[in-house]
Structure formats: C-alpha cells, structure tokens
Amino acid sequence: MPRIIPCCLALALIAACGGGGGGSSQTPTTPSPIPSVDTCNSLGGTGSTPGTGILNGSTCSPERSSVVLVNLRDANNQPTGACSGTVIAPRAVLTAAHCLDEETRIARIWVGVGAEVVADSFAFYPNYRFNTPGTFDVGVILMAQDLPRSPVPILTSRDARAGETAIIAGWGRDQSNVPATLRAGSTTLSAVNGSLLETLYAPPSSSVCSGDSGGPILLSEGGTWSVGGITSATSDNVCNTGTNFYQAIRPPSVRDFVLQHVPNAIQR
User: For residue 200, how many other CB atoms are within 10 A of its CB?
Assistant: First the structure.
C-alpha cells in the first residue's frame, strides 16, 4: 500500500495531514459527476458557491446538516486539532479513530450554529494503530443530550462497489488555510480493498483535504444516502493528487464496534 497520511487537522502539523494546507493545488472548473451544488442536499442542507475544502465541491449550509465539526482538546483543555463527523444516532457521532487517539481528552461538537457541545465520552477501535493491518480507523463520540440533527444510516447490508458514485463531505481546511467550512462533493469509488474504500482525485471528481478526517463517504442504498465509510487518509499531502482512503463500515469488526457503542444506529 502507498504511504498514507491521516486527514486530520492537527495544529502542529497541518501540512502532513492529508491535503490543502496552503498547497499549490488549483480548483478544477469542470462539474462533478453529481453537480456539486446538489451534493449538499444529501447532507440535509443547501449548496452555495464552489468550495475547495472538499476540492471541486460546494460550500454547504450547516443549518440542517448531519455532518458536524469535531474540535479536539487535550487534558489541559487546549486545542489540538479538528476533524469531521456524522450524526448516526440522536446522541452519537461517527468519526475516525486517529482523531481521538493519543493526546485527545475532550471532544467538542459543533453543528454549524449555536454553541459547541462537549461530548460525554468517546471510544475508538481497541488497539487501533494507524496504517497497521488488522486495526480499524473508526471511533464514536457519545453525547449526554440529543443533537439537533437527523441521524444518517450506516451501510451494513452490502459491500461498497468499485465504480459507484459517492458523496464526500467534511469541515476541512481549504488552500487559503480557511478552516471550519462545511463542503461536499461527488466522486467515484476506484477500488474496494479489504477494509478500505478508495477514490482517486481525477477531475471532475472531488477530493478530501486536511480536516475532513472522520467525515463520511456516502453511498446510495434503497434511495437513501448512507455512510459507507469514514474519511481516513490520503497518499499525498496536497488535495489534487493521489488516492483518498476511507475506513469501510461493512467489515464485521467495524460494524460490531459501532453497534456496540451505538445500538440505536439506523442500518441500511
């Protein structure tokens, strides 16, 4: 497997976290396979101008979106970085394990309006180690109160298929180093390998950038966009080259971990 780089947005190491931290990439002008402005509708929001956090995507209104910003803090309540996540139950957010690993002690959820909500607890896959076979880049954040967003189903009824259209979304940084803007775009699965889903950045497809870690890759099942995977890493440190990697939800170990902590998650 190529060298892969987590797509978190670490305060101390922005350039090494999976894309767009001031790189030389340029936003393509060709339309996405699904018009980029329409990808926001899958998140429960509406689209506006083209954005670059999800490269070749659209900026989305967060007012109804179930894709949320995850602000991370250490034991001293100091900011350590940011990721994205998806509401999969009234009191649960799905994200990547590498967002919660190591020095993270506090997770604060922001739905795009109002105040942040401090998580009650969080968990990541046992013995998770980044880029190590047999471990899985999946974590869940649990709240003490309902979040004001509709849960998104997780896709457990079938495997993802190479060649199918997908929607990616997140709160990633853009090439101007502007963080914390919700964006979505369309892409195509280039490969399904073991527990990972892959996409390639090749216009008109979109790509993830730093800060999009933990956000969803959505696949359509039964007419409903469902979380097929979790944004995990890229093979390069700029947005417009290389491969994007997503932790698949379907593998039994990942599915069982999620349902252990979030038994009321909706499944498709």
Answer: 16
Q: How many CA atoms lie within 13 A of 240 on its CB side?
A: 15
Q: What's this model's pTM, rounded to 2 decimal places?
A: 0.85
Q: Does residue 40 sit in the same domain as residue 85?
A: no
b or e along 167-199 (b: 16 or more beta carbons within 10 Å of the residue's beta carbon)?
A: bbbbbbbbbeeebbbbbbbbbbbbebeebbbbb
- Separation CA 251–CA 133 (nearest Å): 13
228 and 180 both lie in a single domain:
yes
172 three-class SS: coil
Q: What is the pLDDT of residues 123-170, one digit of tens each?
A: 999 989 866 767 899 999 999 999 999 999 999 999 999 999 999 999
Considering the domain architecture, whether residues 111 and 229 belong to the same structural domain is answered as: no
Cα gap 173→183, rounded to integer Å: 10
Cα atoms in the Cβ-side hemisphere of radius 13 Å centred on 64 = 8
Coil, helix or strand at residue 257: helix
Is 231 domain-assigned? yes
- d(CA 73, CA 268) in angstroms, rounded, equals 33
Q: What pairing do the DSSP bridges indicate for beta strands 117-118 and 57-60?
A: unpaired
For the chain, the distance separating the N- and C-terminal CA atoms, rounded to the nearest angstrom, is 30
Beta strands at 183-193 and 196-200: parallel, antiparallel or unpaired: antiparallel
Regarding whether 118 and 80 lie in a shared domain, the answer is: yes
Which residue type, as a one-letter code, is found at position 26?
Answer: Q
What is the residue range of 144's domain? 67-151+252-261
Residue 236 lies in a domain: yes
Query: Which phi-psi region, left, alpha or beta, contains residue 228 (left: φ > 0; alpha: ψ -120 to 50)?
Result: alpha
